[in-house]
Design a protein that fits this description.
The structure holds two protein chains of two kinds.
Chain A (H helix, E strand, L loop, with lengths): L2 H22 L2 H26 L7 H21 L1 H5 L2 H6 L6 H27 L8 H26 L6 H15 L14 H6 L3 H13 L4 H26 L2 H4 L1
Helix pairs in contact in A: 1-2, 1-6, 2-3, 2-6, 3-6, 3-7, 3-8, 3-10, 6-7, 7-10, 7-11, 10-11
Chain B lengths: L3 E13 L7 H7 L1 H10 L1 E13 L3 E5 L6 H9 L6 E6 L19 H11 L4 H15 L14 H13 L5 E5 L7 H16 L3 E5 L3 H7 L2 E6 L2 E7 H13 L1
Parallel strand pairs in B: 3-6, 3-7, 5-6
Antiparallel strand pairs in B: 1-2, 1-4, 7-8
Classes of the chains: A mainly alpha, B alpha/beta.
Bound molecules: adenosine-5'-diphosphate and magnesium ion (MG).
The site of adenosine-5'-diphosphate (ADP) has 11 residues of chain B, from β2 and α3.
């Protein structure tokens, strides 16, 4: 492998290690957090929607968990992104290296946490007498890749733009929360009335989250959702990279 | 004269004054016309028509008062900043680090910071690992190396930072005010190391307030005053005049 590529990989590794050490002191707590948080949410949603509101969805717990875990990856990365460049000001001002490696490490770190949380989903599947499917072998890498592109693209945009408008943090948090309720995670897409389906399809996260759930619960991937999520992800990462390229020349000046 | 590895051709650098931007997105939305106006008019001229060349293997000093534009010049060489006007050309593998300890994190230990810093400076992880004992020995930090560096004094931080730099292998080394802290003994060790680099033929650009070390290390020196070149020539002359102008 050429030295430059090896060096970039090493940069991603040390930057990721640094974040993990700082955030959790050790990576095991990071893992616990990444599992515990969605489980806590799943518990609350189960109480409010299944027990109180009595929604008619089979196996509701495992249903929401299979969407909450990948969502957690997305929302953790995007919510962290306003600080990705801002929090590394000293490095950006004083060291020349490809700055997009910073958001990249952020997304990879959250992706790793999600990946290692998949066994928890498996446990819940067993509880509901379901089993993992062979299709996971290609389905999981495929969806990981799509979600990686999607998340990385959005992180690039938010982290770059936040250097110029320093108040994006709250706005981002708000948008992510709103997007969550617009995405079929707590409810199946089939419950959305026919005339609102097009709105659903305008949500770039919807086809991806539907795909994850189908894969985990049924072991299937719907070609239409797979394709649209891929198109959305490709578009997002292209846009993100473009924004980053336009603004990165000025990073050291504004920090 | 041998080939030049760094060339500044009439370089100017403006810093946009972005304080109106830090007002945030709300400010941008609600004060749009004013926002556009300030964007056009508020910029700060940090460097004006700077031209110089550094040739291969040369040790080049930059002196001047605080705020003169020395760090900006180094930033332009390193590629952290882009020139607003003029051309900057650099050839050769450059140490990407301008300031000792850039990227150090107070909560990480000395050892962890060496690894992070070493990789940021262009080494591979295996290379840092191979050299880490040497680096730690050079720093003379002893058991402190496994303590978080927020417990270090500024002199100890400088030791740690320079120890990593001392084990790099760049073609061009940029150094910004590193000898300001640290005790005499360590300063001497640093100067010795820099002289080593010099003997090996590494090109150095050296910003310092310590005129003695500039005299010792640099072949030629650039004096920047008020964002323009005040004087460029042999170290002896430039440092002499510089010292004279502030003697009174
Ligand atoms: N990011 C920045 N935004 C606006 N002005 C800056 C920025 N960085 C430096 N300056 C200004 O540019 C001038 C030159 O700065 P610098 O190159 O750091 O000086 P020196 O290193 O010689 O002390 C200073 O007046 C400083 O205030
Ligand atoms: Mg300076």
């Amino acid at each position: 492998m050429n030295r430059k590529v090896r060096h970039y990989i090493d940069l991603v590794i040390v930057l990721t290690q640094k974040e993990l050490k700082l955030r959790y002191k050790n990576s095991f707590f990071g893992y616990l957090w990444s599992v515990g948080q969605p489980l806590a949410f799943a518990f609350v949603f189960f109480i409010s929607f299944k027990i109180v509101m009595k929604v008619q969805v089979e196996d509701y717990t495992v249903f929401i968990i299979s969407g909450l875990f990948p969502w957690q990856w997305f929302s953790n990365s995007v919510n962290a992104s306003p600080m990705v460049f801002l929090g590394n000001a000293s490095i950006i001002k004083k060291v020349s290296f490809p700055r997009n490696l910073l958001p990249l490490s952020q997304v990879i770190q959250d992706m790793i946490h999600f990946f290692f949380a998949i066994p928890v989903i498996v446990i819940f599947l067993f509880v509901y007498h379901k089993t993992p499917s062979l299709s996971w072998l290609y389905g999981i890498p495929l969806l990981l890749f799509i979600q990686f592109l999607m998340t990385y693209g959005i992180c690039l945009i938010v982290s770059s733009v936040n250097l110029f408008f320093r108040d994006l943090e709250r706005l981002t948090e708000l948008m992510v929360t709103l997007l969550f309720y617009f995405t079929p995670i707590l409810y199946p897409e089939t419950m959305v009335p026919e005339k609102y389906r097009t709105i659903l399809h305008c949500n770039p996260l919807a086809p991806l989250m539907i795909s994850w759930r189908d894969l985990f619960l049924k072991g299937t991937l719907h070609p239409f959702y797979l394709f649209t999520s891929f198109v959305y992800a490709g578009f997002t990462v292209a846009l993100g990279y473009w924004v980053y390229r336009k603004l990165s020349m000025r990073f050291a000046e504004v920090l | 004269m041998s080939e030049s590895v760094i060339t500044f051709d009439n370089v100017s650098k403006y810093y946009p004054l972005y304080h109106h931007l830090t007002g945030g997105f709300k400010h941008f939305l609600f004060n749009f016309p004013q926002w556009i106006r300030t964007l056009k008019h508020s910029r700060f001229n940090a460097l004006c028509n700077i031209s110089f060349e550094v040739s291969k293997g040369e040790s080049f000093g930059i002196i001047g008062r605080n705020g003169a534009g020395k760090s900006t010049t180094l930033g332009l060489i390193a590629g952290v900043l882009n020139p607003s006007q003029g051309k900057v050309a650099v050839s050769g593998r450059i140490s990407p680090l301008l300031e000792l300890g850039a990227g150090f994190h107070p909560e990480l230990t000395g050892r962890e910071n060496i690894i992070l810093n070493g990789v940021l400076m262009g080494l591979l992880r295996v290379e840092v690992m191979r050299k880490i004992n040497e680096i730690i020995a050079f720093s003379e930090l002893g058991d402190f190396i496994d303590q978080p560096i927020r417990m270090y004094s500024s002199g100890m931080l400088a030791r740690l930072g320079f120890s990593v730099v001392a084990h790099l292998d760049p073609e061009i080394l940029l150094i910004d005010e590193i000898l300001a802290v640290g005790d005499i003994e360590f300063q001497k060790k640093c100067v010795d190391k820099l002289m080593d680099f010099k003997k090996k033929g590494i090109t150095m650009v050296f910003v310092s307030h310590s005129l003695d070390s500039v005299k010792m290390i640099c072949d030629r020196t650039l004096w920047i005053e008020n964002h323009v070149v005040k004087m460029l020539g042999s170290t002896e002359e430039v440092v002499g005049d510089y010292a004279k102008s502030y003697a009174v």
